[in-house]
Amino acid sequence: MGIHSGTQPGTADDGARPFERVLVANRGEIAVRVIRTLRRLGIRSIAVFSDADADAPHVRLADEAVRIGPAPAAQSYLDPARLVAAALESGAQAVHPGYGFLSEHAGFAQACRDAGIVFVGPGDEALAVMGDKIRAKAHVAASGVPVVPGVSDADLDGAARDDAALLAAGERIGFPLLVKPSAGGGGKGMQIARDASELAEAIPAARRVARTSFGDDTLLLERLIERPRHIEVQVLADAFGAVIHLGERECSLQRRHQKVVEEAPSPLLDAETRERIGRAACDAARSVDYLGAGTVEFLVSDAAPDEFFFIEMNTRLQVEHPVTELVTGVDLVEQQLRIAAGQRLGLAQHDVRLTGHAIEARVYAESPERGFLPSTGELLEWRPATGDGVRVDAGIRTGQVITADYDPMLAKVIAFGADRAEALDRLDAALAETVVLGVDTNLSFVRRLIAEPEVRAGALDTNLIGRMPPAAAEPPSPEQLAAAASAVLARAAGAADRARRTQGADGPAAWTDASGWRVGAHRTPAVLLAPRDDPDAVVVATPSAPSAPHAEPVVRIAADGTVWVHDLGGTTAFLQVDRRARAEARRALAVRGGVALSPDLRAPMPGTVTAVFVADGDPVDAGDPIIAIEAMKMEHRITATAAGTVRLAASVGDLVSRDQPVARIEPAPTEPASDTIDAASAPASDLPETREAHEQEPTHAV
Hints:
Structural class: alpha+beta
Largest sheet: 8 strands, antiparallel
Strand content: 25-35%
Radius of gyration: 28 Å
């Protein structure tokens, strides 16, 4: 199911094309989403791209495209001057900012207006007031909207940016507290502090993320409401004073303040509460002379669903806007464009009808089994789901390289049904059908999430994911192993055939040509495979396997030899294990007495070093923080695996790749015990077999 086409509510009497040429100042799936509506309306679309996106889907789809700089967002998508120059160069009449990047940047909106270009978004007052969480909270509180108790740097007379003063103020409010950047969004930099010691660590960590991500390290502390539900209301407002809402969305399924699954309408609210919260959202928008599409976010108590508290207002299109579009039949991008062009809003509040149910799942490039660390690499295969009631918004393609330069969200899978149960069933089937090979994703995790009894019953809260057991990889199925073995053997046979042709062999020879050939018997070809994230779980795999009711598996082999397999049961990445190398590794393990713990501390993900907590040569204990690395809205803290002396191999600002050594722990010397086994002389069977453990326990700030 795509975006509704044809005549929509609010467009019947305003058929005039709002603009002739519009520049989309964004990338990925939201750029593709906006360009599709531009095409439907007959508006010429202009894409922008960094060097990393030169051949991205949004560039291919647009009518024109303009390069705006190198891959780092700060030098391309976050540079207002480059974007305004691109709009002027291309003759764009308007700029649609999408979401994220500069969509809520008052300076960018003003720069567009100064250049004579329409900014598809609200006016200066809304951006200034609602773009600052602290100011927004004070603004709506003054108008009687209930807000969560809190304090910010700006509230501390003469002590702004003083961590100690903010810590003391937070203690006066009471725990637990939510620490968040005032200028931020998308959950980036947010942390929970349940006591003074956690708050003392959270404040400087949140400042670091806020400073590097937003250029503003002002912080806001708010009382954390336990078991809250996150409800947001979509509003539309034109320049003639009309303000309406399009119902609410439930966004309670979050992981560390980052939304994962959203739906409309909320299974919590009754008609009376829906009307009250919608009216409050409209009042908030009206108070700043809002213009265009916006979202007012509330916390609603699960225990008292008739109570709600204002969180913030997002002055832009939301990631989860498709669920509202599917239950209302309104194209929100079209409404944004028409309002920005000065047209009247063509529908009133009584015209808005919520029909059916829609649920959206965000597909992220991340590894749930490794603490949700970001994943990068080449997309070996991308196949979106299809079917009744299924919509996929994506901006990726097979062959594209997913880097750490941008947000890890790859796509959104949205399902629509006559009721919530049907929407959930359709979403699960669509997620099973979605194929992403080459990078890790959260597809299997989201399927487990929406199968949770609480989720099926609509008993949601923002901590539900946190209460789930840690994500664990499912063991590969016989069908996946067989498909991987077939692909490996087929590639090996093809390589051997090409080698023979290159060498000009006269004809086939049994010693080199017959797979599995031996004197007196035929041996079934087999390969050694192990799940990439469990390399010790080696399995002898053959091409044969029990028949399965699933669709034919999809298999792709990466340049590094990793074998990716997808079927309806999930996705597994396999390592090809060389028998000789494995035997040598086991002998080496025996020589060092079965001690498999590496002294090297390695980067668990590609990213930027944002903090170093020790000096080179410092003594450390096991568990001490050593280095923090940030990538894709996540800060990961690497800790010492053992006591010893630290030797640093990275510094603040360094770009590191996954598994790159960033430090080394030289163990403290110990006196040998009298009964120590001589590893050099002891037989391997007498030595302990221990698995290598390079993983560090993650501490994220998303």
